[in-house]
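User: Just a sanity check before I run the rest of the batch. Below are the C-alpha cells for the first item. I only need the designed sequence back.
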C-alpha cells in the first residue's frame, strides 16, 4: 500500500478572523467528508495577539497596548494561553479522531501530530525533542499556569531545543475531528509580548519576563544564520510528510470556499461577542 495522501494549504498572511474561520471551516468540511485530512501553513496580517478559548480578556490582556502597537486581536477556538503571532510560521492539522494513526487521548494524539514539527526542526539542524513533565509540581503547573503567556506554560510533549520551548500548540476536538494548531517562532520580540498583558505590578512583570527567557526561545536565537520563512515552510512541509508518514498534495481554495470562510469570519470571529465574551 502506498502512503496516505493529505491535503496541504499554504494560505499566506491573512487577517486574524480569516485565519480562525478557515481552521474552523476545514474542521467542518473534514467532519462532513468533503476534504481529506489537511495540513495548513499560514501567517498573520497584521501581527496578532491570540488568546485561548477560556482566557478572560478583561482580566489578563492590556487591550490599549494591543491597539497602540497596531496589532490584531482574536480568540482562538482552542485552549491555551496568549500568543503573539508575528515572525513565525503558524500551522494547523485537521484529522478525524477515528483516523487509525490517531490515539484516543489528547496528549498522545498531540505527540503523534507534533512528530511532524519535531522532524521539521531536525531538518533545520536543531536537536529538538519532546519534554514530558515528570515531577508532581510540573504536572500540577499544567492545570494552573502562573502566566497568561503561552510560551511560559509547560505542557505534555512540549517541543524543546536545549531545554527551551520552541513551539506552542493547542488542540480542540469537535464533530469527531481533531484541530491542532500552533506557532513555530522564527524571531520573538519579548518586550512587545510582555507589554500586552496585565500584571499585579512591575516587579511581577519583570520576574515573569526574566523567567520566560529561560523557558522559551525562537529558532533564530539557536542558529548561526537567519532561517527565512520560506526555508521554514520547506523544512516543516517535509517534516510533516516524514513525521506522519504521508504525502502532502498542495491545494488552492476555490472562490466558493473562500466566500464561505469570509462569511464565517464576519459573522463569528470579527464579533466582539466572540472575542470578548468571557
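Assistant: Here's the designed sequence for the first item:
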Amino acid at each position: 500500500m502506498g502512503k496516505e495522501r493529505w491535503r496541504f494549504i499554504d494560505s499566506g498572511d491573512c487577517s486574524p478572523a480569516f485565519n480562525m474561520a478557515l481552521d474552523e471551516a476545514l474542521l467542518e468540511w473534514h467532519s462532513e467528508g468533503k476534504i481529506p485530512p489537511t495540513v495548513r501553513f499560514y501567517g498573520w496580517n497584521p501581527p496578532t495577539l491570540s488568546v485561548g478559548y477560556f482566557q478572560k480578556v478583561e482580566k489578563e490582556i492590556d487591550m490599549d497596548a494591543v491597539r497602540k502597537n497596531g496589532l490584531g486581536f482574536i480568540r482562538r477556538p482552542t485552549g491555551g494561553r496568549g500568543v503573539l503571532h508575528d515572525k513565525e510560521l503558524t500551522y494547523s492539522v485537521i484529522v478525524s479522531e477515528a483516523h487509525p494513526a490517531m490515539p484516543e487521548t489528547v496528549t498522545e494524539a498531540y505527540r503523534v501530530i507534533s512528530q511532524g514539527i519535531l522532524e521539521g526542526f531536525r531538518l533545520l539542524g536543531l536537536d529538538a525533542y519532546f519534554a514530558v513533565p515528570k515531577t508532581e509540581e510540573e504536572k500540577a503547573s499544567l492545570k494552573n499556569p502562573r502566566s497568561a503567556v503561552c510560551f511560559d506554560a509547560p505542557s505534555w510533549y512540549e517541543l524543546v531545543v536545549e531545554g527551551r520551548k520552541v513551539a506552542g500548540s493547542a488542540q480542540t476536538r469537535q464533530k469527531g475531528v481533531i484541530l491542532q494548531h500552533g506557532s513555530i517562532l522564527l524571531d520573538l520580540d519579548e518586550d512587545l509580548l510582555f507589554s500586552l498583558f496585565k500584571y499585579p505590578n512591575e516587579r511581577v512583570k519583570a520576574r515573569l519576563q526574566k523567567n520566560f527567557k529561560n523557558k522559551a526561545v525562537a529558532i533564530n536565537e539557536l542558529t548561526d544564520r537567519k532561517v527565512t520563512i520560506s526555508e521554514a515552510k520547506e523544512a516543516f512541509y517535509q517534516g510533516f510528510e516524514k513525521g506522519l508518514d504521508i504525502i502532502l498534495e498542495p491545494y488552492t481554495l476555490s472562490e466558493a470556499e473562500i466566500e464561505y470562510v469570509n462569511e464565517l469570519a464576519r459573522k463569528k470571529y470579527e464579533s466582539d461577542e466572540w472575542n470578548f465574551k468571557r
